[in-house]
Structure formats: C-alpha cells, structure tokens
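ugh finaly. both done.
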Amino acid sequence: AYTVACSLYALGFAGYFWEFFHKYVPGLTESLYSIVGPEQAVLAITFLIGVMFTWLNVRGAEVTGKTENILTISKIIVLAVFIFYGLRKIMEQPTEAMESFTPFFPTGLGGVIVAMGLTFIAFEGYDLIATVAEEIKQPEKNIPRATFIALGMTVLIYLLILFVSLGAVNPDGLPGWQFLGKFKETAIVRAAEGFMPAFGVAVIVFGGLLSTMSALNATVMAASRVAFSMGRDLWLPKKMATINVKTRTPHVAIFVTGIILVTMALTLPIEAVGSAASLIFLLSFALVNLAVIVLRRKHPEIPRKYKVPLYPVIPVLGFLLNIFLALYQFKFQPIAWFVTIGWVAVGLLLYYAVFEKRSAELVPQVLMPRRAAGPSDIVPSVLVALHNPDNVETLMNLAISETRRRESRLIAISVVDVPRQMPIHEGMRFANHKTPLLNKAQKIAAENKIGIETDLIIAHNVADGILASIEQHRAESLVMGWKGHARARDRIFGEITDKVVRMAPCDLLLLKIGEKKRFEKCLFPTAGGPHALLAADVLDGFIDHNDMKLTLSYVVNPDAPEIDRENGRNFMQTTKERISQAKDVQSKIIESKSIAGGIAKAGRDYDLLIIGAAREPMFQKVLFGEIPEKVARYSPTSVLVVKRYEGAVKSIIKKIFG
C-alpha cells in the first residue's frame, strides 16, 4: 500500500509540474506535447522524480528528514497564504459564500462515506511516524507526541482548505463542489484563480509540487522500512535487511521500493490500484485497533509509556468504523476489492509456501557480555533470572540454598527486552534500568557470604536471553519467578515461562510468589517420581537455609480403599528419609475427589507449596502436568514447581532399568 501511494504521489507531482509550465510557459509545453504526447511527458517526469527521491533516501535518514522539514514548512506557508486570501474573499461576500454550503451534503451521507474511504490514503500519513521507529530518538515519548501533533495539524489545515475552496469559489452555473470535482487533483489551483492575485496561482502550483514531493519522500522512506523489517524477519528475501555501511540506510529495500513504484506508475491503471491501496490501509488500521486488544490481553505485563484511553471502547469503535468504510468501498468501486483480495492472496501464498518456514529458522538475537573464559567457567552453575525488584530477595534465598546444595557457582542475570523493531545494540541505552537488580543480588549474596557473578543480557525476547545464558554458563539449575498463569488461551504461564520450560536444558525451579515472601510453613505433596525426588533434594537445602517447618502430604479419594492410604504413607516416609535437614516433619493424608483441588485447599494454611512436575504430561501443551499447573493457577499460596531436566530423567530411568 505504501509503494502504491509512492506511485500516486509521483504521478501527482508530474501533474502539477506540467500544470505550472502549461500556465506560464504554454508555448514550450505545447511543443513538448506535440513531440512526445501529454501522457509520455507526464510519465517522464514521474520517472525522474521517483528516481530522485529513491536516491535521496539512500543518502541517509538525516538527509531525508532535513529535506522533509524544508518541504513541509514551505508547503504549510503556501497553504497559509491560500487560506488567508480565501478567508478574505469569504468575508467580502459572506452571503454568496454560505450558499456554497447549501445543501451541506449534496450527494447525501453516502457520498461522504465514499469520500472518506477514497481519501483515506491521503489522510493516513501519521502512521508513517511509527514505521521509522528505529530512527527516532526517545520513541516511546516522541512517537505518540508526533502522531497527535500531525493529526491535529492535518485536520485543522484540511478543514480550512476545504472551507475556503468551497466558500471562495464562485463559478458560473455550477455549484462549488461540482466545479472542484471537475478538476480533481488540480482543483485547488482552479479555486486559487478566483480569489488570489496573479502570483497566487503560481504559488499554489508550487505548493502542489512541494506537497507531492514531501509525501513521496515520506512514503518511500516508510515503504522501504516495512520491506527492511520484513526482510529481517525473513518474511521477504534476507537481502532486503542489508544496511549500507556508509549511509546506515537499508539501501536494497529502498532500491526495490523505487523500482516497484516507478514500474507501477508507468504501467498500471493507477486510479484502480490507488483505490485498492486506500482499501488496504483501511483494513490495516482495522487490524491495528484489533491488535491493541490482543496485546493488552496477551501481554499485560509489558510496560506501556502510552495507553489508549477508554479501552476497549476506542479500539472496538476504530475496528468497526474502518471495516465499515472498507466494505462501503465495494459499492462505489468493486475493482478495488478484487485487486486487494488478489494482492492478499498472493501474499498468503508466498508466506505459507516460502517465508513461514524460513522465518521459523530465524536465529534469536542476543547480546551477551564478552569476557575471557576463566577456570571457574568449567564449574556448572545455578542461574537466577531477576526481573521484578520486589521478588529479588525471595528468589535469591532459593538460589543461594540451591547453590550450596549443588556446591556450584551462583550467577544472577537480568534481561533487557528490546522491541523487535529496534536493533539489538539499542538495548545498551536501557541497561541502566536493570543494574539495580543485579546490585541488590550482589548485596544479598554478600550478606549470606556466598560468591556471585552477574550478567546483563540484551535480547529481542527475554526467553531467548535466558536460554542463551543457560548455555553459556553451563547451568545445571535455573531459578526464576513466574505469575502462575497466563491470560492468553494459547499459553500456560506466559510467553517467556512457556518457552523456557519447553527448551531449557537444565533443572527448573519456578516460584510463583504469593502475598507472603518469607516462608515458615511448607506443604509438600508427593507421589514419587524423578521430579518429586528433585523437589525433595531442593527442599532439603531450602529448609536448612530458611528454618521452615515441613508437612508432607498425599491426596486420596474419600472413597478409596485403605491400601491407597497405605501407599501414600509409604511415599511420605520415603520422601522424609531423603530430607535430612527437616526436623519434626508432619505427615498428612488429604482426602479430596480432585487432587489439584485438595492440594490447593490444604495449601491455604501454609506459606509455601512445593510440588514436582508430573511424570508424564497428558498433552504436549501441558508443561508440568495437569495437576501442578492447576495447583499453581488456583492456589493463593506461593508455589514452587520443580522439574528435572528430561535428559537427566532419561539417565535415571536408564540406570534403573538398564
């Protein structure tokens, strides 16, 4: 859609260009027309202006931005002159001017709706701001600010120009709106002829040239950045993501954009394709509004510098109104829908046939501290991932006890999450936000007289950063906090935790922290298995470190035979013998028809529930097994879920069964 918009603006420039020469150098214009013809003359200027702004964008974002500033300020001055003379004309003959607005909707409300859909391609320019987020300073502050300023100025200027154009023209025998419609893109020039001095028409034509140049400049930049981002994610050929070393611009994406815009402008029926571009923008904006709702539901934890007010009313209205305008387009110009459907179909075909597989193979981008390997690096480690400042002490206590139990190194990490649209090295600017977490971890380790190493990781995805750290530090065990649930239906505990649990090549200690962050009473439901055995070992060290009171438990159905209760007592006795540090251990048979429900209910009387992952998850989507996941989701108590690395589980099974 952006590339089609580029073609439209290039053709618009050519129209204003020859309008200027036709007005002031008619002899030269007629001579050229007689040699090459009017259409070829327009196409020649279209080609030249397209090539010029493609080259300008390759020069660099700073050059492009300065050019855009000059063009925009100049055209606003031109439009201000136009508005001034138009308002003066209206004041001179207010009665005649008001007649131009009667009837206010000469073709009915349907005409207004059609116009809204068709002109959307001219109005939507404010979204270009977001497409160049990588090249904006302080984007979280400046993107919303620039968007609202752009919208406000655009609405004000458009309304004033429309008011003046309709009210100040006084053509014989034609209503003002019909007169303006007759001349299409040069209508503002015809309007200026009626109320501006002789120089005014030249100024307006010059303003038209400036407007189309600034629009072309901005859309070439936006179109190339979209292509660059898609190339980086392997949704287009990887070559699209190439950056010029000297100018720091995606020169390949810019060149391809330039070739496509010139080709379309020279060969295609641009009116139909332009209508399709406007339609694609409407559908895209509908999806943007829908994305706001999806992101709020799936990623509530993301820090947001700006939030849409009156959520979800505004995004729902935005979605419905954009879809309504898009559907109404079919009534006026059905070919736009056919072009759009064909274009989307081609995109889907390419995506599922080629790019989906390639994008799935994209190597995660992680920036890790470079340091020379020392003798200690051969020693396995316990890794603790820190994110929430309020939970650092609780997680560190667990990690310290695990480090002492394993007699290994302790490493605290924190991951700087860089948005995908930003280069990975930009995360260095936000590193200072995570430093206090690691400083606090060092202080706690010093108080407990244990050595600690700290690393700050920068990644486009937190889970990728954690997984890379596990590999680099040869981690045997990972300690991390988690929410215990996810709002999204397609995730168990959230995007980060789900990926870490599925892919981490080490033991996992995942702690959902409840209201109480210091643990004095612990409930440990057990039914045997490698995960429960690891949970017992972890608990042995944790009890010693925190001086906790322990209660072992086993859940049976109230209608179960006595043999089941006896088996439970045997499980608890075996577990008790494994936990050497525990004193005065209690045993408890929990009677409940639901194992998870019984554990969650009994756990309310304790500060901590510790539970091993199920031995055989019923479904691949289940990460820890159905029972641990239900307990973690519904228990108000802090829950520690322990999962032994599958490679270690297989090794144990092999030893037992040969």
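ok and the 2nd:
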Amino acid sequence: MKRTRCVLLVFLLVLGATACGPRSANPSYDAAPEPKFIGRQTCEGCHEAATANWRGSHHDRAMEVADETNVLGDFGGATFTHFGLTSTFTKKDGKFFARTDGPDGKLYDYEIAYTFGIDPLQQYLIRFPDGRLQALNVCWDTRPKEEGGQRWFHLYPKEAVPFNDVLHWTGIYQNWNFMCSECHSTDVKKRYDAVKNSFDTTWFEIDVSCEACHGPGSNHDAWAHARRAKVGTANYADLGLAVRLRESEPAVWVMDPATGIAKRDRKRVSRNEIETCGRCHVRRGVVTENYVHGRPLMDTHRVSLLTAELYYADGQILDEDYEYGSFLQSKMFAAGVTCTDCHEPHSLKPLPGNGACVKCHLPSKFDVPEHHHHKQEGKGASCKACHMPTTNYMVVHARHDHGFKVPRPDLSAQIGAPDACSKCHSDKPLSYSVDAYAKWWGTKRISQPHWSTTIAAGRADPSAAASALAALIDDREQPAIVRATAADLSEASLEEALPSLLGALADPDPLVRDAAVRALSETDPAIRAKVLPPLTQDPVRTVRIDAGRALAGAPAALLPPPQARQAADALAEWRASQNVDADRPEARLNLCALDAELGDLATAEVECNAALKLAPGIPAPYVNLADVQRAEGREEAARETLRKGLEVAPDNAALWHALGLALVRQHRPGEALDALKKAAELDPGNRRFTEVYRIAQAELAPRNGRGESP
C-alpha cells in the first residue's frame, strides 16, 4: 500500500519484578525521589535470565550503530535500480555508504548512521545537518536466500518515488524523529525547534531496553539495595517500580472441560501490561511527550479507531495497524488475556506451532480435524492460519491479525472484507468457502449477527444506518473500540444518535467517551455548552483536551465562569498537544482551523503557510489556506492558492471541489460546474462532492453562458 508507515519490527518488552546494580556506600532512603533512568547495565546484574532472553530480540536490535557487527546488507559495491534510478552500496574504512538521490534528485554519497530493525528486513538511517534522521526506502531483505531474501528491495516496488514525491526517503513520511523514534529507542525526546525547523532528538538508550517498558528504574534499584542492606524499604511502594506490569495477584487459567476453553480464576483488574505494549503497537498520535508509565494509554496518545483507511469493516487489519487495535476487538481481550499469556516477555517469542493456543483451548477439542476440518499435518491445522491471518507490510513483513476472529466467508460476501478461508483458497471463488463453511457448521454461525454489517452500512451511508449505529453505541457487550467507531460514524446523523452519544459521555472506556465528544463537537453550541463542560475535567488527557476543543466554538456567554476557565485550560492543553508535532503539516493545519474558528485569521494564515513550507507536495494546506483567504474576503487569492495546489496534485478531488465553490462565489458558473464535476468524478464515494455537484447542476445550468447543458 502506498501510504505504508514506518516499520515497527518490535514487540513490547515486559521485564521481571526486581532490579539492582552497583551503588555507592551508605545510601540515604529518607524519601523516594523522582525516578530516573539508570540503564540496562544496572538491571542485568540481578536479572540475568531476562537479559539473556532479551539479547538478540527485536527489541535489542530495534536500532543500532552502523558497524561491522550490526549491518546485514551487502555494502560490497552492490547496486539496486528502481524505476531507472540506481543506488550503490559501499564500505570504506569501516563506514557504510549509500549513493542515491537526494532531496534535489541528484546523486550523493550518504553515510549510514544507524541500522533499523533486523528481521525480516533491515532499514538504514542517514543523518542530516538539521538533526533529521531519514530512513532509506531501499532496504535489505534479511530472510534466507531460499525464502527470497538476501537482496536489496524498495518499499514501493510498483511505483516511482522521485525526489519531489512526499514518500521520497528524504521527506516527512520517512522521518525517523517523528515516525519511528519513540518505539525503537528508550526515553526518546524529539526536541523539535519550530523556529529553526531542526531537531535535537535524544534517547537514553539506543534500543528498546528495560526501562522502555518498566519506566525509570532508580527507585527500584534503591529499593533492592535497601532490602539487601536491611535498612527498610517502606519509602518504596511497589518495590520502587515505576509501574506494576504484573497484577499483584496473578491469575490462573482453569480449564472448563465442558467448553474446552480455560477461564481466568479472577477478573483482570489492570491493563497496565496491555497499554504499555500498546504504546508502540498501535496506530496512534502523540498528545504529550511527558509519558508516565502506568497511566492510561490515552493520557499520552490518541488511539486510532476502525476507520475505512486503516481497517476493513469487520476490524481486520488493512493498513499497517499493528496489534493493539485488533486485540481490543477480540474475545481474548474480553476474557482477560494479556500479551505475556502468549509471548515470552523478554525474547518476545510465542510458543511454536499451536503451543500458545492449546494452553487455553483443549487440544482434544480444538486441535483436531473435527474442529478445523483440515489434515492434521497441513497448514489448515494451524490455529493462526484461520484465526490470525497475515498481511504483508513493508513488502516482506507478514503481520498476524490479533483480532482472533472466527472466519466468516459469508460476511466477506456482504461487506467486502477478506476472510481466512479465501486467503488460503485464493484459486477458488468465494462461494467455495461459503459452501464449505455452511457444510461444516450449518446455518447457526452464518445466522449470527455481527457488528461489522453496521460499520459497513455506516461507512456507506451513516444517515441511513443511524439507528443501527446508535444501537451499537449502546451495546456494552461489544468491544469499546467498535462502539467508539460507531460513535465516530454517527457524526453524520447527530439528531438520531444524540441520546446514545450523550450516554457514551459517561462510558467507562476513554475510547468511547472521546469518540462521543468529537462527534458532539458538530452539534449546536448550546448543546455542547450544556453537556461537554464536565468532560474538560476528565482524568484522561485525550478526552479532556478534545472536550476543550469542542467547546472552542461555543459562545462564552453560554458557559459560567468556572466552566469557561476549565474549558480554556483544556483548550490550552489541546493546543500544546498540536505543538508536540509542530514539525508536521497536519498539526499546523489543526492549529490553523482553531485560530480561524476563533476569528484570528492572521495567525491561521501563518499556520497554513507553515504547513505548506513543511509539505509543499500535500494538497490539504492549499485547501485550508484558501479557506482562510476566503474568510478574509480575498477570493482571488483563494482561487490562485487552489490552482497552485492543483499544479502539485492535479488529481486531488478536495482541491477541485474547493475551486468549484470558489468559482461559484465569483459567479463563474461554467468553470465552477467543470471543477465540481471533476471532484465528483475523482472521488465518487464522497457523498458531499456528488451532492454539491448535483445541486450545482440544477442551480447553475440556467446561467451557463455557453448555451449547453453542464
């Protein structure tokens, strides 16, 4: 897929319970100070087994200095040609170089600064004078030769990526500082300077080490030494750990012989482990760099919902979504399963074969042909083949879907999502899988309703699906991420969804609360002012700041002074969250939209121009800038801005649509109809573009001076 994000080849590290290392004599233990990072070398003195398992893992090899030990690619003069451009890889005096096209399209020799990942591919990072590290999109396939590896390949094999393409390796979508750094190193600080447009990014450890997951370890180290010295550990709660990843009373999985499925002997009371892993194993945005281990994930990150760009309607992975969003949908998550129930926490490896699955699913019931209907030694006997189908990202990296879904080929026929059966039997029509499924399981499973049909209907026409979406929001038996997605889709049918969205504001899951807040941001200001102020005090930052943003357009007179102050504080937090990513055009455009809404058009224009400077090849800043210019009464300038955007992106429907509206305002009906028609043709699935063009045909045709039907 064209918009593949930076590869994350790692699974989150979950270390053991104690750590200690060498310390000075006679330490003081009067009070536990603010914890600090101390480094893996301190931890490994007491945690030898965990360290041994970690060494060589994807976490250990997540990022390393480029040297003879770590570089796996062929730098012996090897060449790779992609759409006529030849890159050459060489080595000199122990340093590694790539000769390839730079930001101006000319060939340069670039020194490799760091390796990135290890299996099944390795990327290479190049340092630029302004502090950027950029990831080459020509990578080394580390798989064995007999598996197709040991070769150079391009991340976008079927398309040219010239120097002026937004996906070129020197551009913002291959920038390590934003795209990759947080999840490949420990205690990363991006440190972007918006004035200088430069980075001074730092890390405490280059790879994903102990404290990436356990948090700063100084107090735990102090606890360990206090315990050893028998001087008292009362000042160090929870062993001095920054976060408890294991529950204080670990659960035991007890097999139910009637169902053949094990159950926890106690309810899961903490999501610390899952959300620690989710920090990097999820599609998300950062809302603050002040990450605090043990806080809810959404306190520092914005978790992506099941949008059409990222997931199929049934929640299967579409774009590079990683594991967390899928896992939240699963029956495993609902049953209390955590990451380390299946993965060894330090090597990150699951048990081979069906080993992890049969720990909780009785082999005599599930690991037999009577269940999977395939030969016992064949691929179809693998639990993962049916319940965790893979999708390739980064060309060669097969990722397992962590939704653990029961295959439903009948749903594939209804909603267009893939299914595990047809993936394996790709040489046969879908009806083959549907018929086999019905033969094995009868109509019982096929007749079972599934929330995916509501999501699919909501994507196709949220107004027509309004009642079904509202019912899904209300159904607390369904996964929270699904209900949040339904709330998000309900933005287009607020009148019918309003009671459900109001109820969702009190939901225990912040994903649902936040989706409801954002949907309600489109309601009448009086409604917002009545129902959203309590959410500006939400304990979870993402919910709180989105409530502040939603109230930004409400007249101040509608809010009593205390609520107005709270809303202002939440809005200030929202603004700060955008400034975290001031190096990104989307953040600058969000600030542009806010300033325009608040009537500060001059500042809005500054933000739009900043976005254009960061990414002149992206269409959105041109649309936003034109909107600001229009609000300022500068219609001609707005039209010229849109035409400049079309020079960059001639097939962008949003630009054509905006230009069409601008031409309508300038009383140029013929040109306006042409532009609106172009937008509708380029994006036929966009109901707004289609509807506006239909109305324009009816309204503008009589004034079409060309004497012809538009």
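summary for the 2nd one i guess: The radius of gyration is 27 Å.
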